[in-house]
Amino acid sequence: MASRAIVLSHRGVADELGHIGEWLSDSGMSIDRVYREDDPKIPDGDLLVVLGSPNSVASGHCLPPAQAEIEAVRAWVAADRPYVGVCFGAQVLARAFGGSVSRMDRTYRDYIDFETAQGAPSVLEGRWAVWHEDAITAPSEAEVLARLPHADTVFRIGRAWGLQPHVEFDATIVRNLGDVVGIPEDQWLPLHRELSDDDAGHASRSRALLDHIAAEIL
Protein backbone atom coordinates (compact mmCIF):
# COMPACT_ATOMS: atom_id res chain seq x y z
CA MET A 1 0.00 0.00 0.00
CA ALA A 2 1.24 3.49 -0.80
CA SER A 3 2.37 5.54 2.19
CA ARG A 4 1.84 9.19 1.16
CA ALA A 5 -1.21 10.58 -0.61
CA ILE A 6 -1.16 14.05 -2.13
CA VAL A 7 -4.66 15.59 -2.17
CA LEU A 8 -5.18 18.61 -4.42
CA SER A 9 -8.28 20.70 -3.78
CA HIS A 10 -9.48 24.19 -3.02
CA ARG A 11 -9.43 25.58 0.48
CA GLY A 12 -12.98 25.96 1.79
CA VAL A 13 -14.97 24.68 -1.19
CA ALA A 14 -15.17 21.10 -2.50
CA ASP A 15 -12.37 20.27 -0.09
CA GLU A 16 -13.98 17.85 2.37
CA LEU A 17 -12.45 14.37 2.16
CA GLY A 18 -15.41 12.43 3.57
CA HIS A 19 -15.23 8.76 2.59
CA ILE A 20 -11.96 9.34 0.73
CA GLY A 21 -10.32 10.61 3.90
CA GLU A 22 -11.53 7.61 5.86
CA TRP A 23 -10.23 5.26 3.17
CA LEU A 24 -6.80 6.91 3.07
CA SER A 25 -6.49 6.90 6.85
CA ASP A 26 -7.66 3.31 7.23
CA SER A 27 -5.16 2.29 4.55
CA GLY A 28 -2.32 3.73 6.61
CA MET A 29 -1.50 6.54 4.20
CA SER A 30 -0.45 9.96 5.37
CA ILE A 31 -2.33 12.82 3.71
CA ASP A 32 -0.57 15.88 2.32
CA ARG A 33 -3.12 18.60 1.50
CA VAL A 34 -2.23 20.93 -1.38
CA TYR A 35 -4.49 23.88 -2.26
CA ARG A 36 -5.14 25.49 -5.63
CA GLU A 37 -5.27 28.95 -4.07
CA ASP A 38 -1.57 28.63 -3.22
CA ASP A 39 -0.56 28.23 -6.91
CA PRO A 40 0.91 24.89 -5.92
CA LYS A 41 3.50 22.58 -7.33
CA ILE A 42 2.51 18.98 -6.78
CA PRO A 43 5.01 17.42 -4.35
CA ASP A 44 6.39 13.92 -4.53
CA GLY A 45 4.11 11.20 -3.24
CA ASP A 46 2.76 7.71 -3.82
CA LEU A 47 -0.78 8.64 -4.88
CA LEU A 48 -2.31 11.83 -6.29
CA VAL A 49 -5.99 12.51 -5.53
CA VAL A 50 -7.57 15.52 -7.26
CA LEU A 51 -10.94 16.69 -5.94
CA GLY A 52 -13.72 18.84 -7.34
CA SER A 53 -13.74 22.51 -8.23
CA PRO A 54 -16.06 25.31 -9.33
CA ASN A 55 -13.43 25.96 -12.02
CA SER A 56 -13.73 24.38 -15.44
CA VAL A 57 -11.64 22.63 -18.07
CA ALA A 58 -14.54 22.63 -20.55
CA SER A 59 -13.94 23.94 -24.04
CA GLY A 60 -14.10 27.75 -23.96
CA HIS A 61 -13.98 27.88 -20.16
CA CYS A 62 -10.49 26.62 -19.29
CA LEU A 63 -8.41 29.38 -17.69
CA PRO A 64 -4.60 29.26 -17.27
CA PRO A 65 -4.59 27.78 -13.72
CA ALA A 66 -6.79 24.90 -14.88
CA GLN A 67 -4.59 24.38 -17.93
CA ALA A 68 -1.55 24.19 -15.66
CA GLU A 69 -3.35 21.54 -13.61
CA ILE A 70 -4.05 19.53 -16.77
CA GLU A 71 -0.36 19.61 -17.64
CA ALA A 72 0.70 18.59 -14.12
CA VAL A 73 -1.71 15.65 -14.13
CA ARG A 74 -0.55 14.62 -17.60
CA ALA A 75 3.04 14.49 -16.38
CA TRP A 76 2.09 12.54 -13.24
CA VAL A 77 0.04 9.91 -15.06
CA ALA A 78 2.48 9.64 -17.99
CA ALA A 79 5.12 8.68 -15.43
CA ASP A 80 2.91 5.67 -14.50
CA ARG A 81 2.08 7.03 -11.06
CA PRO A 82 -1.22 6.22 -9.29
CA TYR A 83 -3.95 8.80 -9.70
CA VAL A 84 -7.59 9.18 -8.62
CA GLY A 85 -9.52 12.14 -10.00
CA VAL A 86 -12.97 12.92 -8.62
CA CYS A 87 -15.41 15.11 -10.60
CA PHE A 88 -13.16 18.02 -11.70
CA GLY A 89 -10.21 15.66 -11.18
CA ALA A 90 -11.77 13.25 -13.67
CA GLN A 91 -12.38 16.08 -16.12
CA VAL A 92 -8.73 17.14 -15.83
CA LEU A 93 -7.61 13.56 -16.50
CA ALA A 94 -9.83 13.38 -19.59
CA ARG A 95 -8.44 16.62 -21.00
CA ALA A 96 -4.87 15.61 -20.18
CA PHE A 97 -5.06 12.62 -22.53
CA GLY A 98 -7.10 13.96 -25.43
CA GLY A 99 -10.66 13.57 -24.19
CA SER A 100 -13.13 16.42 -24.18
CA VAL A 101 -15.17 18.25 -21.57
CA SER A 102 -18.23 20.31 -22.50
CA ARG A 103 -20.36 22.77 -20.55
CA MET A 104 -23.97 21.68 -20.03
CA ASP A 105 -27.07 23.87 -19.97
CA ARG A 106 -27.60 23.24 -16.26
CA THR A 107 -25.91 21.72 -13.26
CA TYR A 108 -26.68 18.02 -12.99
CA ARG A 109 -27.39 16.72 -9.47
CA ASP A 110 -28.77 13.26 -8.85
CA TYR A 111 -28.44 10.03 -6.95
CA ILE A 112 -28.52 7.50 -9.75
CA ASP A 113 -27.44 4.18 -11.21
CA PHE A 114 -24.93 4.24 -14.05
CA GLU A 115 -24.95 2.21 -17.23
CA THR A 116 -21.94 -0.05 -16.71
CA ALA A 117 -19.81 -1.50 -19.49
CA GLN A 118 -19.55 -5.21 -20.10
CA GLY A 119 -16.87 -6.56 -17.82
CA ALA A 120 -16.91 -3.52 -15.53
CA PRO A 121 -16.22 -4.35 -11.88
CA SER A 122 -19.32 -5.17 -9.86
CA VAL A 123 -18.40 -2.46 -7.33
CA LEU A 124 -19.81 0.08 -9.81
CA GLU A 125 -23.33 -1.27 -9.36
CA GLY A 126 -25.77 0.76 -7.29
CA ARG A 127 -26.57 4.43 -6.92
CA TRP A 128 -24.00 7.21 -6.96
CA ALA A 129 -24.03 10.89 -6.01
CA VAL A 130 -23.31 13.20 -8.95
CA TRP A 131 -23.04 16.99 -9.02
CA HIS A 132 -21.46 18.58 -12.10
CA GLU A 133 -22.08 21.07 -14.89
CA ASP A 134 -19.39 19.82 -17.29
CA ALA A 135 -19.71 16.53 -19.18
CA ILE A 136 -16.81 14.19 -19.98
CA THR A 137 -16.10 12.33 -23.18
CA ALA A 138 -13.22 10.06 -22.18
CA PRO A 139 -10.01 9.83 -24.22
CA SER A 140 -9.88 7.20 -26.95
CA GLU A 141 -7.20 5.30 -25.06
CA ALA A 142 -9.29 5.12 -21.89
CA GLU A 143 -11.37 2.16 -20.82
CA VAL A 144 -14.83 3.54 -20.07
CA LEU A 145 -16.47 1.56 -17.28
CA ALA A 146 -19.66 3.53 -16.61
CA ARG A 147 -21.79 6.20 -18.26
CA LEU A 148 -24.79 8.43 -17.96
CA PRO A 149 -26.72 9.40 -21.11
CA HIS A 150 -24.88 12.72 -21.28
CA ALA A 151 -21.37 11.74 -20.18
CA ASP A 152 -18.76 9.11 -19.40
CA THR A 153 -18.65 8.81 -15.62
CA VAL A 154 -15.96 6.26 -14.73
CA PHE A 155 -12.88 5.50 -16.81
CA ARG A 156 -9.30 4.37 -16.38
CA ILE A 157 -6.02 4.95 -18.17
CA GLY A 158 -3.22 2.75 -16.90
CA ARG A 159 -2.87 3.44 -13.18
CA ALA A 160 -5.19 6.45 -13.30
CA TRP A 161 -8.93 6.44 -12.59
CA GLY A 162 -11.40 9.21 -13.38
CA LEU A 163 -14.55 9.23 -11.23
CA GLN A 164 -17.36 11.66 -12.00
CA PRO A 165 -19.35 10.34 -9.00
CA HIS A 166 -18.58 12.06 -5.72
CA VAL A 167 -17.40 9.05 -3.75
CA GLU A 168 -16.41 11.37 -0.90
CA PHE A 169 -19.98 12.65 -0.38
CA ASP A 170 -22.24 12.14 2.56
CA ALA A 171 -25.34 14.17 3.34
CA THR A 172 -23.45 16.66 5.49
CA ILE A 173 -20.94 17.39 2.72
CA VAL A 174 -23.80 18.07 0.31
CA ARG A 175 -25.36 20.54 2.74
CA ASN A 176 -22.02 22.24 3.35
CA LEU A 177 -21.26 22.51 -0.36
CA GLY A 178 -24.67 23.99 -1.06
CA ASP A 179 -24.08 26.61 1.62
CA VAL A 180 -20.56 27.46 0.49
CA VAL A 181 -21.42 27.92 -3.18
CA GLY A 182 -24.58 29.80 -2.25
CA ILE A 183 -27.25 27.92 -4.18
CA PRO A 184 -30.90 27.76 -3.04
CA GLU A 185 -31.75 24.95 -0.66
CA ASP A 186 -34.25 23.39 -3.05
CA GLN A 187 -31.41 22.69 -5.51
CA TRP A 188 -29.27 20.61 -3.15
CA LEU A 189 -31.88 19.29 -0.71
CA PRO A 190 -33.09 16.31 -2.86
CA LEU A 191 -29.56 14.90 -3.08
CA HIS A 192 -29.04 15.56 0.62
CA ARG A 193 -32.21 13.64 1.46
CA GLU A 194 -31.34 10.67 -0.73
CA LEU A 195 -27.89 10.37 0.78
CA SER A 196 -29.39 10.72 4.26
CA ASP A 197 -31.74 7.83 3.48
CA ASP A 198 -28.93 5.65 2.10
CA ASP A 199 -25.96 6.78 4.17
CA ALA A 200 -24.66 3.28 4.87
CA GLY A 201 -25.22 2.08 1.32
CA HIS A 202 -23.36 4.93 -0.34
CA ALA A 203 -20.53 4.72 2.19
CA SER A 204 -20.20 0.98 1.56
CA ARG A 205 -20.20 1.33 -2.24
CA SER A 206 -17.70 4.18 -2.13
CA ARG A 207 -15.34 2.21 0.09
CA ALA A 208 -15.65 -0.90 -2.05
CA LEU A 209 -14.85 1.08 -5.21
CA LEU A 210 -11.87 2.82 -3.62
CA ASP A 211 -10.56 -0.51 -2.32
CA HIS A 212 -10.91 -1.99 -5.79
CA ILE A 213 -9.01 0.94 -7.31
CA ALA A 214 -6.28 0.66 -4.69
CA ALA A 215 -5.82 -3.04 -5.43
CA GLU A 216 -5.29 -2.18 -9.11
CA ILE A 217 -3.05 0.87 -8.97
CA LEU A 218 -1.08 0.79 -5.71
Overall structural class, as computed from helix and strand content, comes to alpha/beta
Cα shape = globular
Q: How do the strands line up in the largest sheet?
A: 2-1-3-4-10-9-8-6
Q: What CATH first level would be assigned?
A: Alpha Beta
Indicate the mean pLDDT: 97
CATH topology description: Rossmann fold
In CATH terms, the superfamily is: Class I glutamine amidotransferase (GATase) domain
- Tally of domains: 1
β-strand percent reads: 25-35%
Low-pLDDT residue intervals, each spanning 5 or more residues: none
Protein model, in words:
This protein is an alpha/beta fold and 218 residues long. Helices cover 35% and strands 29% of the residues. A hairpin with a 2-residue loop joins β8 and β9 (151-157). α2 packs across α3 and α4 runs antiparallel to α5 (185-197).
Quickly describe the structure.
By secondary structure, the protein is α/β, with parallel strands linked by helices. It has one domain: Rossmann fold (3-Layer(aba) Sandwich). It is built from six helices and ten strands, in the order βαββαβαββββββααα.
Summarize the topology.
Layout: E1 4-9, H1 18-26, E2 30-35, E3 47-50, H2 64-78, E4 83-86, H3 88-96, E5 100-113, E6 115-116, E7 127-137, E8 143-148, E9 151-157, E10 160-163, H4 171-181, H5 185-197, H6 199-217
Parallel strand pairs: 1-2, 1-3, 3-4, 4-10
Antiparallel strand pairs: 5-7, 6-8, 8-9, 9-10
